Amino acid sequence: MDSDLRPLKKCRWLESRIDALPEDVLISIVSHLNLKEAAKTSVISRSWRYLWTHTTGVFDFVDSIPKHTQQNIDWVNQVLNVHKGSTLDEFKVSFGISAESSEVINKWIKFALQRRVKRLLLDFRCTESSASAKFSVTTHVFTNCPLGSLTCLHLKNVDMTGTVVEFILLSFPLLQVLHLNSVSSLVRLKIAGPSRYLRCLKIKHCSSLHSLEVHAVNIVSFAYHGPTVKKFFKKVPRLVEASVNKDFMIENIDKFSGYFSRLESLKLDLQDWDDMMFLPELPKLKKLKYLKLSWSENTIEDFMWLCTRLLGASPLLQRFVPKVSDILGNEDKDIIMPQESIFFCQHKRLKVIELRGFRGYTKDVELAFWLSAVFSSGVGTLVVDPCPISPLDQHQHEEWDIEKAVSRAQCIQKFIPVGIKFVIKPTSS
């Protein structure tokens, strides 16, 4: 009988030892958990019941009840009403809203700022019942709030003008990261002035934007995916990382070849590019070490030609990540060693190539063989990733057969040169 009680006694002893810790230590422990995990600690013991309400960590309200706007709003309000902490590391909200949600969202933002939040992430996509509703960010919400703590701001699916963005940059002097995604009403934007701490700027899918000027001397990372815009960089001497789409490539690469020559990391999204004749002359990417290239709906010959040009312009490249989907002419055939390609390309410094979006079709296999020959030393690592590039790919291509892709990748291995390490990336299933 006594032996049966030993685990229970040990558990109670451990519980009493934890409860004996100072409250600030317990709060620190809880603050390292996400919101739902922190709330679950309330059942540990009586002294832990309300401990989570003092958390200074992360508040993440993400799609608790999809398509149920009011329930999500009630959930956020209930948590904020009981919170007793004086600070927050991160405040994140990501779910659909209705046209009537603006007032309560303003209260949430003020709550976060009053808690001296460091990272504020807001994504208010519209619900099906209010497809035209978007939360409008105004300067009013930032008045009478502490402004010295915010270092990271992500805004997605909101309505906001360039004037408000510029006000934010002036108001939050310590801001280091600014992400704007699907921000409507953003027509002109000037990133300048006293933003001396701004390190990372990402602007994506802001369809109304047609003028952008960036004058921020400490920016090291820049991303732009959207329509063609006027101007762009005025002064970004420390830029070493960039991510751009095909519109930027066509219209701007020749104007900013000096900046590109200093890049160490570059991500190019050239999906749906249907006319390679418009590819501009590439600058020398003489410091580039990492290159990711997204490509779709074109021929493998076009892709090889593009890779040859990019790799030839990047003498110090160490890691190359091509992401391919919907290669034209794909079909199933037996795997055989292909004939030598007319696009001869070898690279002296390249160490790793990671082929993403591999589905095991004939053209995928041909591309994998071609990439294995790029290592001029005969030594390197070729990684094949058979998983969909994104959840959207899985949805659009219900026939995506991961098992088949893995099987075809395994058949390739015997044809790969001995010095090349061939890796099939594990799947999540």
TrEMBL record:
InterPro entries: At1g61320/At1g61330-like (IPR053772), F-box-like_dom_sf (IPR036047), F-box_dom (IPR001810), LRR_At1g61320_AtMIF1 (IPR055357), LRR_dom_sf (IPR032675). It comes from the Eukaryota. It holds the Pfam family LRR_At1g61320_AtMIF1. Transmembrane segments: none annotated. Residues 15-62 form the F-box domain. Coiled coil: none annotated. This is F-box domain-containing protein.
